[in-house]
Write a structure and sequence with these properties.
- One of its GO terms (biological process) is protein ubiquitination.
- It comes from Ilex paraguariensis (yerba mate).
- Pathway: Protein modification; protein ubiquitination.
- It catalyses: S-ubiquitinyl-[E2 ubiquitin-conjugating enzyme]-L-cysteine + [acceptor protein]-L-lysine = [E2 ubiquitin-conjugating enzyme]-L-cysteine + N(6)-ubiquitinyl-[acceptor protein]-L-lysine.
- This protein is mostly helical.
- Among the domains are: 72 residues, Herpes Virus-1 (2-Layer Sandwich), CATH 3.30.40; 95 residues.
- Helices cover 58% and strands 2% of the residues.
- The chain is built from 23 helices and three strands.
- It has a three-stranded antiparallel beta sheet.
- Strand 1 and strand 2 form a beta hairpin.
- Helix 7 packs across helix 10 and helix 19 packs across helix 20.
- It is globular, with a radius of gyration of 28 Å.
- It starts with 32 loop residues before the first strand and ends in a 13-residue tail after the last helix.
Length: 418
């Protein structure tokens, strides 16, 4: 097996990492050497972590850092790469040439170009697309862009023409905004403006799925970042907002980002209790159940949390109970995806079985008893176990005789008295 560059131990009895190739902080082979204002060179990740924790001095010289600009040391990096190649026979692998973070001067120039009303449309669009390309490249680039008041510029552009849902300029700035977190004050600039919320809802029905998804992403970001319950309620009460989000979830072609953003937005909307019935009316129940098997882990957890939320209202419970796949899928998910997913699935089943004997029989037929017995003796969360115990008690009259007789095999007769 080859050794990755950066090991503290000798790579082989015949090779040692030269001292000046090691980062003074991590003592590992540098993969992205940068020089600070004192003239000392460090690996980028190490010195960034050093500064991020509040240190303002050079780790080696202890001299104050006059500024925090990191200058790539290309000469040293090429020497390290040459050394790696020369020692390949000893198991050393060549370090890749790192992508450099976006130049702050370039970012400032692009933001200025994009925001200037005197510039031609194509010039402004080009600037926004270049910024989006930079943002897509790395977290570092997104940090650089955020540091230059990009949110303020992008919000201004995104909502500059509320009368047109076909404005490319709005769409490009919206695509960029959806890639960044927003502060509470920035979220308020959207949440407190019904015209802006209405514009985002209108974009949920755009012919381009990308525009629809980006709009849903910003809606979710704003909902998550707005503390005011009144404003969150106003957003979730916007005409056709649930229909627009459900439309993204039911998009017929394979598009993982649509699923991810769609369920995040739906969950955020369903956190507003008084408007959950609108999700049911918009057929969110059918959409979530039909796509449940397509979600990745984190998204599956959020989808199941949404199911549990909607099961807390009568119309939601009735809609889930009437879908043939609801109970079998929820039973199957227990102990299969994650502890959180198990907890939400058990909670949803508890709500469903509490309102219908038919659902109880469906759950038993789907094998819920074995799943619950395994759950109460597992390492799952205490909340999940409590829900499982409550559900087992609820289902005791539905237990087949052979299941009751064998319950001691699971070691939980003391947990669930009958």
């Amino acid at each position: 097996m080859r050794n990755m560059p950066g090991s503290l131990e000798p790579l082989d009895v015949g090779v040692q990492i030269p001292y000046h190739f090691r980062c003074p902080i991590s003592l590992e082979l540098m993969s992205d050497p940068v020089t600070v204002s004192t003239g000392q060179t460090y690996d980028r990740a190490s010195i960034e972590s050093w500064v991020a924790t509040g240190n303002t001095t050079c780790p080696v010289t202890r001299a104050p850092l006059s500024d925090f600009t990191l200058i790539p040391n290309h000469t040293l990096r090429r020497l390290i790469q040459d050394w790696c190649v020369a020692n390949r026979s000893f198991g050393v692998e060549r370090i890749p040439t790192p992508k450099q973070p976006a130049d702050p001067t370039l970012v400032r120039s692009l933001l200025s170009q994009a925001s200037s009303l005197s510039n031609p449309l194509n010039s402004r669009l080009s600037a926004l697309r270049r910024l989006r390309g930079l943002a897509r490249d790395s977290d570092k680039n997104r940090s650089v862009i955020c540091a230059h008041s990009a949110h303020e510029v992008l919000l201004s552009i995104a909502f500059s023409n509320l009368d047109s849902v076909s404005s490319e300029l709005n769409h490009e700035s919206l695509a960029l905004l959806s890639m960044f977190p927003l502060s509470e004050s920035e979220c308020m600039l959207v949440a407190s403006r019904p015209d802006r919320v209405g514009y985002l809802v209108a974009l949920l029905f755009h012919s381009s799925i990308d525009v629809r998804v980006n709009s849903a992403a910003l809606i979710e970001i704003v909902l998550a970042g707005t503390r005011s319950p009144e404003l969150r309620a106003e957003i979730s009460n916007a005409d056709e907002i649930f229909e627009g989000i459900v439309g993204i979830l039911t998009y017929p072609m394979a598009y993982p980002r649509a699923l991810k953003i769609g369920i995040k937005a739906l969950f955020a909307l369903c956190l507003v209790k008084q408007h959950r019935h609108k999700a049911v009316t918009a057929r969110a129940v059918e959409a979530v159940i039909d796509r449940l098997a397509d979600f990745e882990k984190c998204d599956a957890e959020r989808a199941l949390a949404t199911v549990e939320l909607l099961c807390r209202i009568p119309s939601g419970c009735a809609a889930f109970a009437s879908h043939a796949l609801t109970v079998p899928l929820l039973v199957k998910i227990i102990l299969k995806v994650s502890d959180r997913a198990t907890e939400y699935a058990a909670g949803a089943l508890l709500s469903l079985c509490s309102t219908s004997e038919l659902t109880q029989r469906e759950a038993v037929a789907a094998g819920v008893l074995t799943q619950l017995l395994l759950l109460v003796q597992s390492d799952c969360t205490q909340r999940a176990k409590r829900k499982a115990q409550m559900l087992l008690k609820l289902l005791r009259d539905s237990w087949p005789e052979d299941s009751t007789a064998n319950s001691d095999d699971f070691g939980c007769s003391d947990l669930v008295p009958f």
